[in-house]
C-alpha cells in the first residue's frame, strides 16, 4: 500500500525538496509513498488571486482566508478521504515518535502549510484540522515543518530502512534516548572504544547500552526520564 501525502501550500516548488534524496527519494521512486502538492492560490476567488487578508481586531501581519482554504481542501480532499488532515502550527500538539508511527501505519496525510500569521480559526474548526507542531519555535511557514514530519514518517514505512531493527532501537522508541555509538578506528585521538563493545559478549553489551541510555536520558531529559519511570511503575 502506498502512503499518500497531499500538501496544500503557497510554495509547491519546495516539495519534495530534500525528500527526493536518499532513503525517502528511493522509496518514492519505488512507489512506497507519493506526494502531491496543491497550490492554494489556484482556489482564490478574486482576480488578484488573494489568499490572505488583514486580521480582524487589528494588529500586525496577515491571516489566511478560510473561504479560499475551504475550496482548496474540499476539492482536493473530499470528506470521504480517510487520511488525517493536519495543519502545521506552533500551537499544535508537539510531534512525537509515537505520533509519527501512528501516521506511518495509516493511509497518508493531508497537510496544510500555514504562512503569514496563520489560518482563520473557523477553517480549522469546520474542516477539523489537527494542529501539529514540530517544536517550540516559530518558522516562517509550514512547509519545512511538513518536510520534517514526512521525513520522520517515510523512514518508518515498510521496506524503507535497510535494517528494520534500527527503527525500533532508536531514541524515543522505548522512552529513552539512545546509547552512544562507536566505529573504527578502535583508537581515535587516544580515545579507545569502550572494552565491553569489543568483548563479543552480547548480553553484556546490551546491558551496557541500556545503562548508558538511562544515564543520558536522566542527565539530558528529566522530562523523558520521569515519564519512563512512571511507565515502569
Ligand atoms: N503567528 C503564529 C505563527 C505563524 S508562523 C503564532 O504565533 O502562533 C507561520 C506558519 O508557519 C504557521 O501558520 C505554521 O504553518 C508554520 N509554523 C511555524 N512554526 C511552526 C512550528 N513550530 N511547527 C509547525 N509549523 C510551524
Automatic annotation (TrEMBL):
Ranges where the tRNA methyltransferase TRMD/TRM10-type domain occurs: 4-226
Sites where the protein binds S-adenosyl-L-methionine: 114, 134-139
Main location: cytoplasm
Cellular-component GO terms for this entry: cytosol
Family of the protein in this entry: Belongs to the RNA methyltransferase TrmD family.
Catalyses which reaction(s): guanosine(37) in tRNA + S-adenosyl-L-methionine = N(1)-methylguanosine(37) in tRNA + S-adenosyl-L-homocysteine + H(+)
Pfam families named among the record's database cross-references: tRNA_m1G_MT
Subunit architecture: Homodimer.
Function: Specifically methylates guanosine-37 in various tRNAs.
InterPro entries xref list: Alpha/beta_knot_MTases (IPR029028), tRNA_m1G_MeTrfase_C_sf (IPR023148), tRNA_m1G_MeTrfase_TrmD (IPR002649), tRNA_m1G_MTases_N (IPR029026), tRNA_MeTrfase_TRMD/TRM10 (IPR016009)
NCBIfam families from the UniProt entry: PRK00026.1 (NF000648), trmD (TIGR00088)
SUPFAM superfamilies in the cross-refs: alpha/beta knot
Entry's EC annotation: 2.1.1.228
PANTHER family: TRNA (GUANINE-N(1)-)-METHYLTRANSFERASE
Subcellular location: Cytoplasm
UniProt-recorded name of the protein: tRNA (guanine-N(1)-)-methyltransferase
Keyword field: Cytoplasm, Methyltransferase, S-adenosyl-L-methionine, Transferase, tRNA processing
Gene Ontology molecular-function annotations: tRNA (guanine(37)-N1)-methyltransferase activity
GO biological process: tRNA N1-guanine methylation
Amino acid at each position: 500500500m502506498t502512503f499518500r501525502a497531499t500538501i496544500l501550500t503557497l510554495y509547491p516548488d519546495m516539495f519534495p525538496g530534500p525528500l527526493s534524496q536518499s532513503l525517502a527519494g528511493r522509496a518514492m521512486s519505488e512507489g512506497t509513498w507519493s506526494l502531491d502538492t496543491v497550490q492554494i492560490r489556484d482556489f482564490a476567488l478574486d482576480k488578484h488571486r488573494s489568499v490572505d487578508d488583514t486580521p480582524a481586531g487589528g494588529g500586525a501581519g496577515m491571516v489566511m482566508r478560510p473561504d479560499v482554504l475551504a475550496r482548496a481542501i474540499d476539492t482536493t480532499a473530499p470528506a470521504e478521504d480517510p487520511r488525517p488532515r493536519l495543519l502545521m502550527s506552533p500551537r499544535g500538539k508537539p510531534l512525537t515518535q509515537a505520533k509519527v508511527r501512528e501516521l506511518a501505519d495509516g493511509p497518508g496525510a493531508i497537510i496544510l502549510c500555514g504562512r503569514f500569521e496563520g489560518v482563520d480559526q473557523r477553517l480549522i474548526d469546520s474542516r477539523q484540522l489537527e494542529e501539529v507542531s514540530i517544536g517550540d519555535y516559530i518558522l516562517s511557514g509550514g512547509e519545512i515543518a511538513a518536510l520534517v514530519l514526512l521525513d520522520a514518517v517515510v523512514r518508518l514505512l515498510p521496506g524503507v530502512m535497510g535494517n528494520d531493527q534500527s527503527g525500533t532501537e532508536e531514541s524515543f522508541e522505548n522512552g529513552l534516548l539512545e546509547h552512544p555509538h562507536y566505529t573504527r578506528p578502535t583508537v581515535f585521538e587516544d580515545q579507545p572504544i569502550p572494552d565491553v563493545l569489543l568483548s563479543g559478549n552480547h548480553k553484556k553489551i546490551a546491558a551496557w547500552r541500556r545503562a548508558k541510555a538511562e544515564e543520558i536520558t536522566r542527565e539530558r531529559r528529566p522530562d523523558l526520564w520521569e515519564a519512563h519511570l512512571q511507565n515502569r511503575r
